[in-house]
Amino acid sequence: MSDKMRWRYGDTNPVVAAVDESTVIEIGDLVYQDTDDAKPASAQADQGSETANQELFASNFLGVAMQRSRSGDTDPIRVATTGVFEFDCPGDTFELGDLLGVDEDTAGTALLSQQVAAVATTAAAIGRAARRIDPAATTVLVDIRSTIMTGGV
Q1: How far is CA 126 from CA 35, 59, 81, 94, 145, in A?
Q2: 120 touches 49 (CB < 8 A)
Q3: For residue 4, how far is the Cα from the chain centroid?
Q4: Tell me: the pLDDT tens digits for 72-107?
Q5: Taking the model in full, what pTM does it have?
Q6: pLDDT at 33 (0 to 100)
Q7: CA end-to-end span of the chain, whole Å?
Q8: How many Cα neighbours within 13 Å face the side chain of 132?
Q9: What domains appear along the chain, each with residue ranges and CATH number?
Q10: Residue 32: how many CB atoms within 10 A of its CB?
Q11: What 8-state DSSP symbol labels residue 47?
């Protein structure tokens, strides 16, 4: 996926996160903290099920990348830890406050770095729907909450 500024409104409470030189991060990627570095959702190792993948990601959720990091770059990047962002989603309806987590690819083996889906529990959530969506749509406003910086949803 290419860079896409997904921030729509609200305080972003940014932090500056280290990135390994081999890690590629695009603007708008959902990122997690792996020991001491930010990584995009797609870099997380498969845990065997969508729920397990979502829960592991949510427990290490850092925020949304506001800067890119290309392969070979060693500069840290700015990451938003709160705010309302517009993310792609499978065509669905949402009510205010519905729980949302990072979505998984159709093969069921990797998370998608710039797409969210409804989740059943706060353990798998990275945010909540910030606008009612009905009829079904392919984007949703998500009020994110970094687990690392704010304690999560």
Answers
A1: 19, 9, 10, 15, 6
A2: no
A3: 13
A4: 999 999 999 999 999 999 999 999 999 999 999 998
A5: 0.95
A6: 98
A7: 26
A8: 3
A9: 7-147 (2.40.300)
A10: 26
A11: -
